[in-house]
Amino acid sequence: MTTHARARRVELASFLRSRRDRITPAAVGLPPGLRRRTPGLRREEVALLAGVGVTWYTWLEQGRPINVSAQVLDAISRTLKLDEAEREHLYRLADMPAVPASDAHAALDPEIQRILDQLGPLPASVYNSRYDLLAWNDTYNALFASMTSRPSDARNALWQIFVTKECCNPVVNRQEELPQMVATLRAGFGRHLRDLSWTDFVRRLSAASPEFAAMWATHDVARPGSRMKIFQHSAVGQVRTISTSMALASPPETRMVVYTPMDEESRERIAWIRAHPHVPAVPPHTH
Q1: Which residues have CB under 8 Å from 173's CB, separation 6+?
Q2: Which domain of life is it from (predicted)?
């Protein structure tokens, strides 16, 4: 074991003990018992509640070099009532590549929505690194109602672009934009190699879209950044924007994306769309 790994294990052991000590038996429905040297939970109680072996958990808390899985860490997180920051810290100390996605909608700070709303005339949204749409303002909703109207577990920009028929998709500059989006997804995927929600998403999207599968196979990677994005609207025509991506402090791997019009004509068209939110971006049609 390297010096760095040993130090991380020592920190993991101390962190687990400190979190265990703050949870009273009553908080998890256990009787207080007799001869309890600490007001917190015993190791065997944590193991019982998390559904893991007492010996295994003892070794984990002692900092021994044992393997852990995301499922076990999640069970321990729930037992110790860890918040998002503590859960992320636990994963780092256990040398897991990423924290599996939790309910990102609940984790978003209410202030984020207020910021989106204050941006007013500009379409703005929040995505995670898998391109799941987490929040948006009224202008974004008017421009991309086909996305925001979907159930929360289906609001994914990549799925929308690759699986939806091209006639129903407002993105105009697909040839430039799609490879960049897939490369950005690939960079995020490297932090979630053991996350079944990520691997399953890539598998399903690859099966649904040969175009995505071909781009995924190139193994290109990229960071989120400013890019030109052109959208088509049924009533006003093309809207040319520059999307600017800004990382948020919490939840992990989320970013706010703001679409700024590239010219006055596009600015006026966005204003019209915002004033007429019920006019669909794609006119009704049959396939």
Answers
A1: 228, 229, 230
A2: Bacteria
What are the sequence ranges of the domains in the chain? 3-93, 104-275
Q: Which amino acid is at 180?
A: Q
- What tens digit of pLDDT does each residue of 83-110 get? 877 888 888 888 776 555 554 444 688 8
Please, which pLDDT band fits residue 252 given cuts at 50, 70 and 90? confident
Q: Encoding tokens for residue 162? A: 């690759």
For the domain 3-93, what is the CATH code? 1.10.260.40
| Exposure string over 225-245, b if 16+ CB within 10 A, otherwise e | eebebbbebeebeebbbebbe
Mean pLDDT of 158-176: 88
Backbone angles phi, psi at 267, to 5 degrees: -60, -45
Q: Is 82 helix (H, G, I), strand (E, B) or coil?
A: coil
Please determine, for residue 59, whether its predicted confidence score (pLDDT) is greater than 50.
yes
